[in-house]
Write the structure tokens for this entry.
Amino acid sequence: MQPPRSDLAPPKDDPFTVEQLKQYDGSDPSKPIYVAIKGTVFDVTRKADTYGKGKSYNLFAGKDASRALGMSSLKEEDAVSDYSTLSEADMKTLNDWYDFFSKRYNVVGKVVDLPPQGSHSNQAAASASAL
């Protein structure tokens, strides 16, 4: 596990929409790679070997996948922002991931239009209808 960094920039509060965040999924090498957790957007570009296109954790790039992080899941259907149904243990895992990212990656903004917590089934339905 990588150690905490002492050279992080002050956190930014730039607004991102869900659609804007999708642009930072690692598919365009000229753009940074962002991962959002609980609405906070982190710049993970320096770990492109992990979060970049085709890499092991690319599932988390360009979106808020809080539920999947809390569940320690790499399933696409779990990669949604709604973490309202997580167990207490999974919620602790999610909070641990948030703390981990906070100590290692620059905060570049907030997702401003996430669906409300408790709407996971709506997100899943919307994702299925988009296919």
